[in-house]
Amino acid sequence: MDDDYDNIPNSPAIRYYNMLDDDFIGHDKHTECSQFYSISVKDMDAYKLCMSFIGNLENYDKLNFSIKHNVYKCHYLNLWAYDRLSKIQGIDKTTMMSSLLKHWGKYEYKDECSGGDFVYYNTNNADYIKTKRIYDYALNYDKFQLLYKQNNNIPCTKKQDEYIRKILSLIQEVRTECEGTQSFKHYCVAWANIQKIYSKDELLNLECKSVEEEDPPREDFDGPKGWQGEEPADYNNYCKGQNIKEKLQKNLFPVYLFRKMDPHQFTGLGSMARNLLRTKGINGINSQEELTHELLENPYDSNAHPDLTETYIGYQAI
């Protein structure tokens, strides 16, 4: 099984984890994190994790995934903390974990959200991987279901198709082990928890109706440059209250990508452009500017629209 199959660029799960990296970074907490500070930019990951970690603990009540998923935000905070810690090189991870847990015990929400899962994952990495993938599937489900199940004229990329097939295979494996038994393994609990958000039938019946024949170029697969590394909160705030001209001037969603490149190249945008041209091309979408305006007119905002009544790039659900 490909260890990287669930790394889907711009998926909701990745965007939410990036939010935990940056939204509440504790800029005034240098003293608490000074032991991890390095003069080398290459060795700053531990320091940045410490600062983000403390910021998230201080602002736990403000961590916002969505109405559906906020009930499990403590699980996501633990998963994020271990995910980031496990990727840091050149430090003693046990020492850093001990330091982070000391901070965890100092904050207001320590009784509501403990670091017990964080400790467990450090000694049960295989369980951690399964648990994270199941909880992340819950974060990703609405977007994939809306794009590729309800609207089956939109093809999946090969990467997305691989993700859906392999995550469903994992869930079937977990079901076989966990259902009908009283198991306290974290991935068994995760499977039970996400069924409180979505029905079992919904979770097990997601599929790609069609798959693109070839993967798009790497740059296009990641989306327009303005999206790469972009945080959900910043993107949502940017979208609100600004007209198209201001958006283009700020270069957060560079229109030159549409002018210089065929919009069919883009994974999400290509499909949306094809649909727009089929339905509206005869009636007046005769230029790149008009097509760009159509695609930008109603940008996706996962927090503002938790029920996902519209898709990721201005697509109105039917």
Give the averaged pLDDT, no decimals. 74
The shape is globular
Biggest β-sheet description: none
How large is the share of residues in beta strands? Answer: under 5%
Portion of residues within helices:
40-55%
Number of structurally distinct domains: 2
Calculate Rg over CA atoms: 21 Å
Number of strands: 0
Helix and strand succession?
Answer: HHHHHHHHHHHHHHHH
Q: Give the termini distance in whole angstroms.
A: 36 Å
Look at the helices and sheets and give the structural class: mainly alpha
Low-confidence stretches: 219-274, 276-318
Supply the number of helical segments.
Answer: 16
Features:
16 helices, 2 domains, 318 residues
Describe the protein.
By secondary structure, the chain is an all-alpha fold. The chain has two domains: 12-204, no CATH class; 223-296, no CATH class. 54% of the residues lie in helices and 0% in strands. The protein is built from 16 helices and no strands. The chain has helices at 12-22, 30-33, 45-58, 73-86, 93-104, 116-123, 125-150, 158-178, 186-194, 200-204, 218-221, 232-239, 244-250, 256-260, 267-280, 288-296. Helix 3 runs antiparallel to helix 4 (73-86), helix 4 crosses helix 6 (116-123) and helix 6 crosses helix 7. It starts with 11 loop residues before the first helix and ends in a 22-residue tail after the last helix. InterPro entries: Plasmodium_Vir. Pfam families: Plasmodium_Vir. This is PIR protein.
